[in-house]
Design brief:
two-stranded antiparallel ribbon; 8-stranded parallel beta barrel; alpha/beta; TIM Barrel; 11 strands; 387 residues; 16% strand
Length: 387
């Protein structure tokens, strides 16, 4: 198994009393007068230091992400953050999970930026290609009905730009180029690994598992463990339908995690911060989450019937709710290890992306979490499940 530190880089000074002020969400619609650039600068330096700590402790890599117009994440441009991270991360991979391709008017520029980063790091970049959640389409002004088409076409353009001899012409429905001839080319051959983070879209899973791709599929959190298990096993089923057996290296799970000396201590320390993540930072309505055209009708109906978690239109949730459903890993090292061993045995999980800073978790608890996870979870499980 391989272990990575995932980070959203939240703006910790957001007004979490926004509901008392008549607002439903901090995303996009809440006035940003509270933003303080000096505090933002300090947070960037803190978060980069946390990633540097993880690298020094032997994590396999660190992860950056993309969200727009929200204090949930200070990374609207993940490639910029990956460049900043590359100056500090000397050993592990840098996972850009992910770049929302349909929101981009020039995917060729993304191919160039990723190639630059790959050369800067001597081949330690992993690229993540995502559609972006529904609210990003409100924030970007991109037609959500074009999301799927733009996503696949941008993927094809980027992959061809990396692997097809240039210059060549690209004539797509959404993107047209008379000349595709990027320079530099990627450091890794034929190109950096491509991972596909998703919330469980069946079409995406089948596409990612195709024999000519075999992309690592990343299941993001906010779903009960049994749903995560079902989704990741569906990737195995898709691989089998294509005529091969999926390897653990093709299955990844991003999960909020907190480790302390005892279960009780972990729950008490993590409670306000994990509940702030699910109830406040991730609060938005289904109308914002599912703009018309973003999903097909069947998927939209299934999502609308699903029981939402926390701030996504489902009222407030507690840490006990999250633990019972297996949405988070919070407890002693032995408890967290047991949950991961279960996932390894039942799913064949190969990559764990641990969200070790979440919500309002302060610096001292975050650093302690990174350290305990490295020594008491990562090292024992690596020994048990070597590459």
């Amino acid at each position: 198994m391989k272990f990575y530190m995932f980070h959203f880089m939240p703006y910790l000074h957001a007004p979490l009393d926004f509901r008392a002020k008549g607002r439903d969400t901090l995303w996009m619609l809440y006035p940003h007068d509270y933003f303080d650039p000096a505090k933002c600068h300090a947070l960037y330096n803190r978060y980069l230091g946390e990633m540097e700590l993880a690298d020094s402790l032997g994590y396999d890599g660190v992860c950056v992400n993309e969200h727009h117009q929200t204090p949930h994440s200070l990374m609207p441009a993940p490639n910029v953050m990956a460049g900043a991270v590359s100056a500090r991360i000397k050993n592990g991979k840098i996972l850009i999970l992910g770049r929302a391709l349909p929101l981009v008017d020039n995917p060729l520029a993304v191919a160039e930026e990723w190639a630059m980063l790959d050369n800067l790091t001597a081949g330690r970049i992993i690229t993540g290609m995502v559609r972006g959640i529904g609210i990003e389409y409100h924030a970007s002004g991109v037609n959500p009905g074009e999301s799927v088409g733009r996503y696949y076409e941008a993927h094809d353009l980027i992959k061809q730009a990396w692997t097809r001899p240039g210059p060549f012409r690209f004539d797509g429905k959404y993107y047209q180029y008379a000349y595709v001839n990027p320079f530099p080319r990627p450091f890794q051959s034929p190109h950096p690994p491509i991972w596909i983070p998703s919330g469980g879209n069946p079409d995406t899973i089948v596409w990612a598992a195709a024999p000519d791709r075999k992309y690592t599929y990343v299941q993001f959190f906010n779903a009960p463990y049994e749903s995560v298990k079902k989704t990741l096993l569906s990737y195995r089923d898709a691989a089998e339908s294509h005529g091969y057996d999926a390897k653990p290296d093709q299955l990844a799970w991003a999960v909020p995690t907190y480790v302390a000396d005892t279960d009780e201590q972990a729950i008490n320390q993590a409670r306000p911060h994990i509940e702030a993540l699910f109830n406040d930072f991730m609060a938005f309505s289904k109308e914002l989450l599912l703009p018309p055209g973003y999903t097909n009708l069947a998927a939209a109906i299934a999502i609308s019937k699903a029981t939402p978690v926390g701030g996504r239109g489902g009222g407030r949730t507690t840490i006990e709710d999250l633990l019972e459903k297996g949405i988070v890993h919070i407890g002693s090292a032995a408890t967290v290890r047991a949950r991961l061993e279960k996932a390894r045995g039942e799913i064949g999980l190969g990559h764990v992306l641990a969200l070790l800073q979440f919500g309002t978790l302060p610096a001292d608890l975050t650093r302690r979490n990174i350290e305990l996870y490295a020594s008491d979870v990562v090292q024992p499980l690596r020994a048990k499940y070597p590459d």
